[in-house]
Amino acid sequence: MAVCIAVIAKENYPLYIRSVPTENELKFHYTVHTSLDVVDEKISAMGKALVDQRELYLGLLYPTEDYKVYGYVTNSKVKFVMVVDSSNTALRDNEIRSMFRKLHNSYTDIMCNPFYNPGDRINSRAFDNMVNSMMMQVC
Amino acid sequence: MEQGPAGVSAAAAAASTGGLLLPLSESEQQRYSELFSRCCPPPEAAAGGSSVGELFRASQLPPDTLHQITEVCGAKRVGYFGPTQFYIALKLIAAAQSGFPVRIESIKNELPLPQFVALKNDSDVRYGTPAELHGVKFQVPHTSLEKNSYKRTDEGDKQEPKSPPMSPICSPPASPSTYQRVPLSYGYGKSRSGLEQQHGAPYEVRHTTHQQDGPLSGNYGAKPALACSTLNRSLSGEREQQDSNAHYSDDPWRITEEQRDYYINQFRSLQPDLNSFISGSVAKNFFTKSKLPIPELSHIWELSDVDCDGALTLPEFCAAFHLVVARKNGYQLPETLPETLVPEYLQAASLKPMRDCTLFDSYSESLPGGQQTRDFSRTEKTSAEEVSDSSALLKDGKKDDKQALKVSTDLKTIPKEFQHLTVKTAAQESNTLKARPRSRSYSSTSIEDAMKKGEEPPTPPPRPQKSHSRASSLDLNKIFQQNAQAVRSGWLPPPPPALPPRPSLSQTEQVSEVELHPQMNKPPSQAEENSSAKKEVVIAQPPSKPARRKLRTETQGLETPELSPTINVTSSLPAVKPHLPVQKQSSKQKRAIQTAIRKNKEANAVLARLNSELQQQLKEVHKERIALETQLEQLRPVTVL
């Protein structure tokens, strides 16, 4: 279960960011922002090879004491960043991958909506529902 | 308001009541003349019996009283409702409503204006927007009883364009055939002239209807309803008027026949082929004209485009249009699509009368199964209908394997396409990953699949896309077959000979225990194919789509029994074959695919079991690792940062 999920546009501004409503939401925003550097680093490292072979799932971007940050980038340079609580060790890599996959699919569904202009903030209820399902349940 | 002639007639009434002076106050005069003119258009001298009857019933007096009144006022004697009789009757109604006995003498008293409940109620209801759709139901229960009555009583000519209460009343259709009709509210005045037949109406008939209708009040909706039913279907351009329609069984989310016809006409104006779909941009322009705010339109789109392909098929379009209409009339948009607006429902509902084909019942049942595979977990398998499910099963099977074996290759290939395709085609590509369950087209999915398969022989090279299209699925069949064999035989099977470029990659991957090769074999091969076929994909996709559409429309042009392919592919395909040579190949391919499906299912089961075993092993390995790490930390004096 994620603690914070963010969708970042190509120009590195957030399209969608949602955290578990605890205190310190700003901390998550900062974390996501700083993780963008790591994302760019990984992209450029892999970018030498043919773009097709670049993996979308970036994996663990960096771990901190409390949580881990995972990244995922699409071919249109839209980034998904997910912050996961470190104490939740049961989360395996493939689960993270499947969560990103779900995010990606929901994102493409939003793109299909002709009323959505790429670059707008994401206001879709379906997307919200999907993200909520992935967020940690706050007791 | 005919004050002049009314005044004259009032005076005449006063003069001619057989010596009975009828004192009418100012307000009474006004009201009576208004009512009289409503019941009786100016040129006539007498009010139509039926309309008068309606009015009287609207007064909510018991029928006995009404009979008395008509007797007393002299209409029965005279045989028609002249102005005198009418005014006397109104006075008597007022008297009765005030509690006085129905006698000639009572009208001499000071009486309030007679109350005609239905009229007032309807005017209130008409202008209350949330109740607009419901106010009609006020009439709905009546009209069913009215069916007989209105047949005998003549059509009411009591409709004046200026009488707004009539429009919602008009909406519940009294015609026995269709229960829902559009009140084309303001247009029905035109037909009034054609409906005036009253003046010879035998009064006895009305009496019997009185008795029949009994306690019903305000049931003069029957007349205008019939009037509406006789109206041409000239729909006003304003969508708002559509909302005053009766909603069958009081459900605002159900689409009536008129509404559907209107939506279909609008669809036709945007896209002449009813079986094709409207692209997103066209639909956007169209719905933007409704002047709803963009976020709401966006939400409406999300609700109605169930297969999320960026395009609206006819049922999706109807649902979207209906939601727009509802929203304009003040209804809040629901969070999820109501079931009466779900495309399968709309398809079934619209196709049934058109096609008159029971096949569609089963087809529509199978469709929800097909489409829901998207909604539910994608590993869910529907068992409704073979062909439409075959691809779904294939994909589900693929997904099972992929998820189990931690392969993200399907996503890898999807974004590749994103990079190269336009949004629409990209959406379709991404959707085709899940798209098989989503039968986005109005026509049967099997036909569409048949089309797609039919296209495979012409364009095999550009399409070995990872997941959705049949070509790749056929490749996967080989993979699965070999995979299944390999799994049975042992652990790490050699790469299938059918994919020569891959052996090096597969050998490197043999190192990993957890992942089975054949799955990994796919992505590299697809990667290569994709890289080489990037451009071709772009080109191939749009041509294949119109080609598919063309083929689909061709098949649509065939007669209805052809729809049985959706149910029973193999049996119906022979019937279809003579029509299109393409489908011949597709039927063979279908059979091949069906056998492949069975094999895939078996392979899936095996792989699932394997997966669970591997998971267990993985857990144990994890535990061991953790134990070892703790030991290590204990041994190590200082933690290394």
From TrEMBL, chain A:
Keyword presence, Isomerase: no
Principal localization reads cytoplasm
Q: Name one GO biological process term.
A: endoplasmic reticulum to Golgi vesicle-mediated transport
Where, subcellularly, is it found? Cytoplasm, Perinuclear region; Endoplasmic reticulum; Golgi apparatus
The record ties this protein, via Pfam families, to: Sedlin_N
Its GO CC terms are: endoplasmic reticulum; Golgi apparatus; perinuclear region of cytoplasm
Q: Origin, by domain of life? A: Eukaryota
* Alphabetized UniProt keyword annotations: Cytoplasm, Endoplasmic reticulum, ER-Golgi transport, Golgi apparatus, Transport
- Family membership, please give it: Belongs to the TRAPP small subunits family. Sedlin subfamily.
Q: What is this protein called?
A: Trafficking protein particle complex subunit 2-like protein
From TrEMBL, chain B:
Q: Name one GO cellular component term.
A: plasma membrane
Q: Which InterPro entries match?
A: EF-hand-dom_pair, EF_Hand_1_Ca_BS, EF_hand_dom, EH_dom
Q: Where is the EH domain?
A: 28-112, 259-344
Q: Is Transferase one of the keywords?
A: no
Provide ranges: composition bias, Polar residues.
362-374, 554-564
Tell me the leader sequence span.
none
The GO biological-process annotations, alphabetized, read as:
endocytosis; endosomal transport
At the top level, the lineage of the source is Eukaryota
Keywords attached to this Swiss-Prot or TrEMBL record, sorted alphabetically, are: Calcium, Coiled coil, Metal-binding
Enumerate the Pfam families for this protein: EH (PF12763)
Q: Domain EF-hand: where?
A: 292-327
Q: Which Gene3D superfamilies match?
A: EF-hand
Compositionally biased region (Basic and acidic residues) = 144-161, 375-384
Q: Which residues form a coiled coil?
A: 593-631
PROSITE patterns membership: EF_HAND_1, EF_HAND_2, EH
Q: Where do the segments described as Disordered lie?
A: 138-199, 362-402, 429-472, 488-564
> CDD domains this protein is in?
EH (cd00052)
List, in alphabetical order, the Gene Ontology terms for molecular function in this entry.
calcium ion binding
Biased composition range(s): Pro residues: 162-175, 492-503
Q: Which PANTHER family match?
A: EH DOMAIN, RALBP1-ASSOCIATED EPS DOMAIN-CONTAINING PROTEIN 2
Would you tell me the protein name for this molecule?
RalBP1-associated Eps domain-containing protein 2 isoform B
Organism whose genome encodes this protein: Patagioenas fasciata monilis
Q: What is this protein's gene name?
A: REPS2
